[in-house]
Write a structure and sequence with these properties.
By secondary structure, the chain is α+β, with helices and mostly antiparallel strands. Helix content is about 45%, strand content about 30%.
Protein backbone atom coordinates (compact mmCIF):
# COMPACT_ATOMS: atom_id res chain seq x y z
CA UNK A 1 0.00 0.00 0.00
CA UNK A 2 1.18 3.49 -0.81
CA UNK A 3 1.82 5.95 2.06
CA UNK A 4 1.08 9.63 1.42
CA UNK A 5 2.23 12.24 3.93
CA UNK A 6 0.16 15.41 3.67
CA UNK A 7 1.93 18.80 3.92
CA UNK A 8 0.49 19.42 7.40
CA UNK A 9 2.00 16.17 8.66
CA UNK A 10 5.33 16.97 6.97
CA UNK A 11 5.25 20.25 8.91
CA UNK A 12 4.65 18.36 12.15
CA UNK A 13 7.68 16.15 11.47
CA UNK A 14 9.85 19.12 10.49
CA UNK A 15 8.87 21.01 13.65
CA UNK A 16 9.77 18.05 15.85
CA UNK A 17 13.11 17.53 14.09
CA UNK A 18 13.93 21.25 14.52
CA UNK A 19 13.17 21.03 18.26
CA UNK A 20 15.56 18.11 18.72
CA UNK A 21 18.21 19.72 16.51
CA UNK A 22 18.22 22.68 18.91
CA UNK A 23 18.78 20.27 21.80
CA UNK A 24 21.77 18.59 20.15
CA UNK A 25 23.25 19.12 16.67
CA UNK A 26 22.57 16.11 14.45
CA UNK A 27 19.73 14.82 16.62
CA UNK A 28 17.08 16.41 14.41
CA UNK A 29 18.24 14.32 11.46
CA UNK A 30 18.07 11.17 13.56
CA UNK A 31 14.55 12.01 14.73
CA UNK A 32 13.46 12.75 11.17
CA UNK A 33 14.78 9.42 9.89
CA UNK A 34 13.27 7.47 12.80
CA UNK A 35 9.82 9.02 12.40
CA UNK A 36 9.76 8.72 8.63
CA UNK A 37 10.85 5.09 8.91
CA UNK A 38 8.05 4.33 11.34
CA UNK A 39 5.50 6.07 9.12
CA UNK A 40 6.67 3.98 6.17
CA UNK A 41 5.56 0.83 8.05
CA UNK A 42 2.00 1.90 7.27
CA UNK A 43 2.55 0.40 3.83
CA UNK A 44 2.03 -3.01 5.48
CA UNK A 45 0.14 -2.20 8.70
CA UNK A 46 -2.43 0.43 7.68
CA UNK A 47 -5.87 -0.35 9.02
CA UNK A 48 -4.87 -2.32 12.12
CA UNK A 49 -4.68 0.71 14.41
CA UNK A 50 -7.40 2.06 16.69
CA UNK A 51 -9.97 4.28 15.02
CA UNK A 52 -10.47 7.79 16.43
CA UNK A 53 -13.25 9.63 14.68
CA UNK A 54 -12.44 9.80 10.96
CA UNK A 55 -8.83 8.70 11.51
CA UNK A 56 -6.75 5.80 12.73
CA UNK A 57 -4.06 6.40 15.35
CA UNK A 58 -0.70 4.64 15.25
CA UNK A 59 1.21 5.10 18.51
CA UNK A 60 4.97 4.79 18.06
CA UNK A 61 7.43 4.15 20.87
CA UNK A 62 11.19 4.20 20.57
CA UNK A 63 14.35 6.14 21.32
CA UNK A 64 12.39 9.38 21.39
CA UNK A 65 9.20 10.16 23.34
CA UNK A 66 6.21 8.51 21.78
CA UNK A 67 4.25 10.14 19.01
CA UNK A 68 0.93 9.46 17.38
CA UNK A 69 0.49 9.22 13.62
CA UNK A 70 -3.05 10.12 12.57
CA UNK A 71 -4.01 8.71 9.18
CA UNK A 72 -6.88 7.76 6.92
CA UNK A 73 -6.91 4.51 4.98
CA UNK A 74 -8.44 3.99 1.58
CA UNK A 75 -8.21 1.07 -0.83
CA UNK A 76 -5.15 2.60 -2.51
CA UNK A 77 -3.24 4.45 0.22
CA UNK A 78 -2.67 5.38 3.83
CA UNK A 79 -2.84 9.18 4.05
CA UNK A 80 -0.94 10.63 7.02
CA UNK A 81 -2.76 13.75 8.20
CA UNK A 82 -0.83 14.61 11.37
CA UNK A 83 2.02 13.56 13.62
CA UNK A 84 1.33 14.47 17.25
CA UNK A 85 4.48 14.90 19.36
CA UNK A 86 4.19 13.75 22.99
CA UNK A 87 6.80 16.23 24.27
CA UNK A 88 4.27 19.05 23.90
CA UNK A 89 2.19 19.99 26.90
CA UNK A 90 -0.98 18.01 27.48
CA UNK A 91 -3.34 20.97 27.04
CA UNK A 92 -1.88 21.80 23.61
CA UNK A 93 -2.12 18.17 22.52
CA UNK A 94 -5.75 17.92 23.70
CA UNK A 95 -6.75 21.09 21.80
CA UNK A 96 -4.86 20.03 18.69
CA UNK A 97 -6.32 16.53 18.78
CA UNK A 98 -9.86 17.90 19.13
CA UNK A 99 -9.26 20.23 16.18
CA UNK A 100 -7.96 17.36 14.06
CA UNK A 101 -10.88 15.09 14.84
CA UNK A 102 -13.40 17.80 14.00
CA UNK A 103 -11.82 18.75 10.68
CA UNK A 104 -8.35 20.24 10.63
Amino acid sequence: MRVIILPEAEGDIDETAAFYEEQEPGLGTEVYRFRRGEIDTLSTTAGIHRKRGRFRAMVVLGRFPYFIVMYRKSEQAAEVCAVIDARRDLEWNAQWNAQLLTGR
